[in-house]
UniProtKB/TrEMBL annotation:
The keyword Lyase applies. The lineage of its organism: Eukaryota, Metazoa, Ecdysozoa, Nematoda, Chromadorea. InterPro entries: ANF_lig-bd_rcpt, ANPR/GUC, Cyclic_nucleotide_synthase, Peripla_BP_I. It is found in: Cell membrane. This is guanylate cyclase. Pfam families: ANF_receptor.
Length: 568
């Protein structure tokens, strides 16, 4: 005699504008799809499933109160949910107290929940943030890096970055083979603030892990890369590793369900978008692909069905779900399907081996362990009831499009890496000339590790020497110019001794016959005396009076003639 199973859906939010990851209005019917699948696979024949749906609205007090109602008043067999970390903690405690199976999905990523000794009745379908740290370490080891810096923001206050910081520190303490050289909290999210952080971290590391709130809806990744690109922090030395759950890396989901590149501004394409691309070309994303990594187009068939079935019983969500924002399935609707399907599989097993124990949470949890195919690919539940997820490592290929370079199957603290490329240079480092960057530049972060350049070291002396040489050359030139000038002055002075300036001459008035005859006496041919235009120097300074005649042609006195004249 088998009882009817009462499945409880305990969904986070049913409020306007609630999270696109887990909204009730765009995910709840995934549970019905899972039950159809269980029936289609002839499991649990003769069973009926009954849902009771209460809302926690992401509030821990409401969650705790409603959980008690469900355990005590509704007497549920299993609780599916809650979907966020803070409400999950009191509800997990209550499930332990009432010894009732509980399976969570969605955004419950806190490592605290993944503790089988504290919460022995729980199964977790969501991916824990700890697996990001484990995958991050695998990437670091793969490329021979052992030090990195972490810059995180608390804007949006969704615990993501603090949780990641703690997970990194735990990972580092556990393995001891990687060093977190520096951690800084980003307080100022303006371009100036980000620049100050970049300057700071660049003196301590080249493998930089920036962390911003979930979903990157405020475009902080874009702003970060833009500031980096404009200020010289996207050279081939820099690697930006961005681990992120609930992400598809280089595809950011928009309100209407479509995707945009992270370098495209949220308000639409901008001219500066291209400036941000070089930053993203130097980035590596570690993401969960929102649980849709290996499926691709097949996932949209499921998503369409979720939206369609929300209008049908028992959800009857017609008017409330008619708004445009509810026409795309919640990101983690697939996980709700998987949570319900996992419960069905475990129920089937428990009925075979221990049929009376199906409400015994501690015992039931052991039947959750195993592997099955979920909506988004294979799902592995480890013996602590946690998920052993597959994470994806992405970078931009030669065409600036996202390419998966590795998948990492994480099993608690260990991981198995599957590389999806054969040529590392073109697949991973295409945008840095095919060369894998070291985690520390050859000359250190500030260049201080290289033998200092002789020139820069003695720059003062070099400059002094150069100035002296320049002055000497200048002096020589000036002396030469002066000598040349002095020589010309001298020549001119000497020329002046024999040259008679035209101005100092005066025309001689016509003379009487006597004068002519006087000249004739000197038996000089009478050519001079017969010229009317004869001139006579009347300069007072001149000692001698000289008679001169103006030539009708202009004779050129070259240097040689002048020299001869001076000799006379
Ligand atoms: C989706 O995958 C299932 C098996 O996993 C297959 O039967 C089905 O045909 C696929 N649908 C599409 C649209 O590819
Ligand atoms: C949903 O609608 C069906 C028929 O349209 C009705 O029988 C059922 O009671 C409704 N359920 C709820 C929860 O309103
Ligand atoms: C529930 O299961 C645990 C572990 O298997 C067992 O010790 C306990 O007795 C069970 N409780 C009931 C009420 O059967
Ligand atoms: C880039 O795009 C071109 C043309 O579409 C294609 O031939 C090439 O294979 C692509 N390269 C990579 C690395 O995807
Ligand atoms: C990739 O982006 C860079 C930067 O904007 C651009 O110069 C380059 O042409 C792009 N490459 C391709 C293949 O689109």
């Amino acid at each position: 005699m088998h009882p009817t199973t009462a499945v409880l859906l305990f969904l986070a939010t049913n409020v306007e504008g609630s999270s696109p990851y887990i909204s009730y209005r765009t995910s709840a019917s995934a549970a019905s799809i899972a039950i159809d699948r269980i029936k289609r696979e002839n499991r649990l024949t003769g069973y009926d499933f009954k849902f009771t749906i209460l809302y926690d609205q992401c509030d821990e007090n409401l969650a705790a109160g409603n959980a008690i109602k469900l355990f005590r008043d509704y007497n549920v067999d299993v609780l599916i949910g809650p979907t966020t970390n803070i409400p999950a903690i009191p509800v997990f405690t209550l499930a332990t107290y009432y010894n009732t199976p509980i399976v969570t999905w969605g955004m419950t990523s806190s490592a605290t929940l993944d503790d089988a000794s504290r919460y022995p009745t729980a199964g977790i379908i969501s991916i824990g943030s700890r697996s990001l740290a484990v995958t991050f370490r695998e990437v670091m080891l793969e490329y021979g890096w052992d030090q990195f810096v972490y810059a995180y923001s608390l804007e949006g206050d969704d615990e993501k970055c603090e949780t990641m910081r703690d997970d990194f520190q735990n990972m580092i303490a556990y393995y001891g083979d990687i060093v977190l050289s520096y951690t800084i909290q980003i307080m100022d999210h303006s371009e100036a603030g980000l620049l100050a952080v970049l300057k700071d971290v660049s003196t301590r590391g080249r493998i930089i892990v920036p962390c911003f709130h979930e979903g990157n809806t405020r475009g902080l990744h874009r702003r970060w890369m833009l500031v980096a690109a404009r200020n010289g922090f996207v050279t081939d030395e820099y690697v930006y590793i961005i681990p992120s759950l609930r992400s598809k890396g280089y595809a950011i989901q928009q309100d209407d369900g479509s995707y945009r590149y992270p370098w495209v501004d949220s308000t639409g394409p901008q001219p500066s978008d291209h400036e941000a691309i070089p930053g993203f070309q130097r980035s590596i994303f570690i993401v969960d692909m929102q649980g849709q990594g290996k499926i691709g187009s097949n996932y949209s068939v499921f998503e369409d069905e979720v939206i369609r079935r929300m209008k049908q019983p028992p959800y009857n969500c017609t008017d409330a779900c008619s708004a445009q924002e509810y026409q795309h399935a919640a990101t983690y609707a697939g996980q709700l399907h998987d949570a319900v399907y996992l419960y069905g599989l475990a129920m089937e097993r428990v009925l075979i081996t221990a049929p009376t124990q199906y409400r015994n949470g501690t015992q039931f949890a052991q039947y959750l362990v195993g592997t099955f195919t979920g909506v988004g690919g294979p799902i592995v539940i480890d013996d602590s009831g946690g998920r052993s997820p597959t994470l994806f490592v992405l970078t931009l290929d030669a065409n600036n499009t996202s390419s998966i370079i590795m998948t990492v199957d994480v099993d608690q603290q260990s991981a198995e890496v599957t590389k999806l490329y054969s040529n590392e240079a073109t697949a991973v480092w295409y945008h840095r000339k095919g060369i894998r960057p070291p985690d520390e530049p050859v000359c250190g972060y500030t260049g201080s590790k290289c033998p200092a350049n002789v020139f820069y070291e003695n720059m003062g002396w070099f400059i002094a020497a150069i100035i002296v040489i320049l002055l000497t050359i200048l002096g020589a030139i000036l002396a030469f110019v002066y000598l040349f000038y002095a020589k010309r002055q001298e020549v001119e002075r000497q020329n002046a001794l024999w040259q008679i300036p035209y101005k100092s001459m005066m025309t001689v008035a016509k003379k009487g016959k006597g004068e002519h005859s006087m000249r004739s006496i000197s038996s000089v041919p009478s050519t001079i005396s017969s010229t009317r235009s004869s001139t006579l120097s009347e300069n007072e300074v001149e000692i001698e009076k000289v008679a001169a005649r103006k030539y009708t042609i202009r004779t050129l006195f070259d240097n040689k003639i002048c020299a001869n004249m001076r000799q006379m």
